[in-house]
Amino acid sequence: MSELASASRVDWFGTFGAILVPGAVVGALLAIAWARGAAGATRGMGWFALAPLAFVVGTIVQPEVLENLLSGGFGLGEIAFTAFVVAGGFGIGGGRPRWARWTCAVIGAAFLVALVASLSVAGGPRFALTEPRGAWLAVLAGSLGALIMIAEAIPFRYASRARDAAGALGGSVTMLRRCSETQLPRS
Length: 187
Known about the structure:
The chain is built from 6 helices and no strands. It is mainly alpha-helical and 187 residues long. It has one domain.
């Protein structure tokens, strides 16, 4: 963030309340989702997909941000970021219907491309992709965006596995019932 800002400053409430604490909450919730999914406890896994909303909450609780959001649209970036991350996570993580998964994957990829492309627009010519600093910032932003989408895929992956296992279990029970009803030929 300080790379893009012309004059960098630390706002304690903004830095900790809107970035660091929500980032830690998102990371902790996604880690809990992974641990629960690895242990086989997939009930309610879909709720962990809402973890990135912590960034929205962290921004909205700042003084005067809600007023600016309602009057001028300031703060919509966090809401859009959260929506694109959840869409990208769903696209990577799997699920049904397949067309929705592919649509979300394309939306997430388009967001990453737009994020990288917007850096030179926001930072000016010194952040052009042909400059070393611009290339470094593009790799950093793109990789961090991809990383949070991959982490966001965890709840979707375990939730879709649980649905598939429930469907497979239902099919196995039906197959076992049919096998028990059929009589084997005697020799």
